[in-house]
Amino acid sequence: MKKNVRNPEQTTATIDTSVRDSKVVTQPPQRKTVEPQEVPAQPQKSETLDRDFSVLGKNVNKKDAYEKVIGKTQFAGDMKRPNMLYGGVFRSKIPAGFIDHLDISKAAAIPGVACVLTYKDIPGLNQTGIIIKDEPILVENKIRRIGDAICLVAAETEELVEEALNAIEIEYDEIEAVLTIDRAAEADSPKIHGETNLHQSKHLFCGDVDAAFEQCDVIVEKTYSSGMKSHMFIEPDAGLAEYVNGILTIYVSTQNPHFDRGEVANMLAISHNKVNVIQAATGGGFGGKLDIGVQCHLGLLCYHTGRPIKMVRKREESTMVSSKRHPMTMHYKTGAKKDGTILAMKIHMTGDTGAYASYGPAVITRAVVHATGPYYVPNVDITAEFYYTNNPMSGAFRGFGVPQISIAHEGQMNALARELGMDPIDLRIKNAHRVGTILPTGQELTESVGFVETLEAAREKMNELFNDETYQPSAPNKKRGLGIGCMWYGIGNTGLPNPAGAFVEVLGDCSVNLLVGCADIGQGSTTVMAQICAEELGLNYEDINVTYAHTMVTPEGGATSASRQTFISGKATQNAAYMAKQTLMEVASDYLKVPAERLIFRERKIWDREDPDTKMTYPMLMMEMRRIGKLALGVGSYNPKTTYLSPKDMSGIPFEVYSYATAIVDLEVNVETYETEVKNVISVHDVGTAVNPQMVEAQIEGGVVMGIGFALFEDVILTRGRIKNLNFSDYIIPAAMDAPKIYPLIVESEGEAGPFGAKGVGEPALIPTIPACADAVENAVGIHFGNLPILYIDIAREMNRKR
Amino acid sequence: MRAFNFFSPETVEEALDLLSQHQDSIAVIAGGTDLIIDLNEGGKKPDYVLDISQLKELDYISESDGMLHIGANTTFATLEKNELISEYYPAIAKMADYMGSPQIRELGTVGGNVVSASVAGDSPTVFLAYDATVVLQSKRGTREMSIEEFNVNRGKFRCQIEDDELLIEVKIPQANSNFATAYRKFGKRKSLAIVVLATAMRIERDRDNRIKDARVTLGAVSLHPMRSPKIEKALIGKKLDMEELEPVLQLYTEEIDAAIASRPSVVYKREGIRGLAKGCMMDVLEQYGLV
After folding, report:
1. A273 at the B interface (CB within 8 A)?
2. Staple B117 to which of A239, A782, B9, B159, CB 3.0 to 4.6 Å?
3. Cβ–Cβ of B2/A159 closer than 8 Å?
4. ipTM metric
């Protein structure tokens, strides 16, 4: 494991604030000529120092843990207000068509029904969407999927809401539903939006693939696919809206409070500061709570009734209308030399974006940029097309397309290793990203590339756990296999600005108010921000109180997505803390008569690094601040150093840093009942600096189990655009008994980017287990499965076909 | 959920009075693991709900008159922990262990599972193998019938229960050392999984360790669990030894093919059934101490 650390005091004292304010470079860099990279004899290691943090790297208790453990946390569904109404949504029951006739009069006449609203009641913009505003808040005429929102109801009780919804009369003019991308692509298919069903297409290329394939000794060509998946966050979408001092205040389970605020305000044609979105405790999201859920509907009902109103989606409604993971098909052609050097990849992928864009543009872009896997490939040609259909809306789901393409790039690596008779880890190390690697986008990796270390750590752990003698199936009717999968993941939005901010005030008693926009959906960002803030200021973790995701008081935090919050909100927090600290440093410098850059702030003390006896306590410093009338205030923001990508070949700098990971899966297949059991998983993640190692491990563990679900359990069953398995009883995710023994390992690679060198692990945690499961099944039973999930029925079918 | 009147009697007599009185629109609730879903989804809209969970007199497991009696109010958690069951009725113990999750086993009752008679339920397949009899009671009297006869749809019910009747108990012939029983199930995960495919068997051996009698049942391949006379016949007379039993596995596949040839799930079930059946055979041999 790579240990590297900079001296935090040095950092804070020498970096100028202007350097800390990142700038978006708007011009893509010149594309460099790419040649096969030379593999260094030894993994690169720069000068390493011992870590010397006082708060960072410590397993402090999560800020929200106590209340959750004793059951006192208030989720939106738990909230109540006097005089509160309940809201519900009348939704389409057909996947495609037009509203022929709608009659709400009977519903509106029911005593106890406060209002029934249609699109006509929207005073502002009847359009929503995170990237492309193509989804109506309430359908005007055209229906694009099962579950499209048509009317809203507010009533005194939940039962009356149900009664009113049942009293709404509708007649449809149904048209052909476009249910496959093949049909969507045809000229004569009905068009879901505008003139074409092609949602987006992308082309990333560098070098000359055709010429390169000529030089290859081995070419592997395969097709992979991945089905639709549902997030199945434990808490269904819920929220409560009310007017507080004339401000429309919405408490909601969300990953995206600042986006929500804008969408609600635009719908009501009021200014953004007249809407206050406060994130309620959120029971998971995984990307499914990035889009607008109940926010706009609550806002509109509250606006029209003036009364507090609550909406809690039922599980079926939540699963039906929240976004889903894009089903994707990926065709890969990979060429290599005899020694394993990869020379070329030609890739074509397609995806079903469903009825609305949601995060589709982010998914296609990220999938294309990551399509090679974490390997140097000098000649690349990647094309992608995503199509609109009348299926459920696809969107963001932990990994934005990278989990899907990891099946393909890792499937190819494992196939190549088999073809070449090479050890799959050696093959990966040979082609691995390193500092200095040039990506197909032209970006040069300059720091924080710990991929090789993850491979080596995984191999070491594997050798420790298993050897040829002990590695045997547990019963004669079982076959056992080890599989490997790797991934890389760019932190933050792809080739787009995505800033976040933070406010800091150090109070007279040395406690701190930290305000960040960042939504904590359980992953622990609040704790991470407090640790970063405490470390930067030289205070204790307990000194920091965090107010988060409260749009009237916290600055923009961007979405809790793209594994970006530790990196971006974390850096913003560090910058804000540093600004406050600058004032503190000036005052301490005058008081101690020591140049500011020589001062160390740590554990509530300040001292001269060259003369530790010249010192003062933090309370003394705050007293001095009061005496001379100064406030310790800080504002910070951070926007990762990226560029827009060229529309021609997608060159540019899509991400400032990348996380890397390797997973090894050990599983057994019962060849008589076709049951698969994952027994052990090693999952090694390069996270830069682990701000809170226990929380990193917890992310990895959760990701491993979700990865097993992706690979071996989960599949949305669609019939004519309708999801058949809306519940936990039939959408099967792994439960506690299915969880394997997990070995989460952390690699800390060296880099200047991010707060104290921290990157992100939220989505990476999920990804490598997926291709590793597929490889392990193949190694156990000797059959290649390119389509995931690999279910018992697939194994039964293929094993008996083989015989 | 629609409003309803709720009764929670403490004696069977009271319960039967209420059932008789409100039989046009009453639903019986024990653990509620099935009914609550129906009420929430609007599948059932009764005016009255009769809670029988307080009928302590129906919570028992006992052997008498050559039979094992299981009261309808016995939960799966009770079954799971009962020593008589784990010692002498291994297929019932296994069924209780496979069933749902710890929380569901604490609430779910044998009576509820038998009356729900779900295609994907655990108990019907097992009780059919055990040659179970159900005891039904109403104000009109008491009647008994074999579980095979009971598991025939009648109106809104997936069994023969009448609107004013309560299931009192399930009884099965008492175990003896010549009996061995087994149950194997495949669900989509290790817990909290309904039955995708299941099979159970009760074997009776003779003095030469040959199969004297066999009852074999298949679950989740038709509306109700079914017996397979074909497999039973093939088993009778066979020596209790894996090599001799193994050829019978092919008949399981044939039975599945015959039952659900056109279903997409046949792809799995025709193959997986042999694995489950072989597991049952191994359990049986183990119980006889023959492995």
Report:
1. no
2. B159
3. yes
4. 0.94
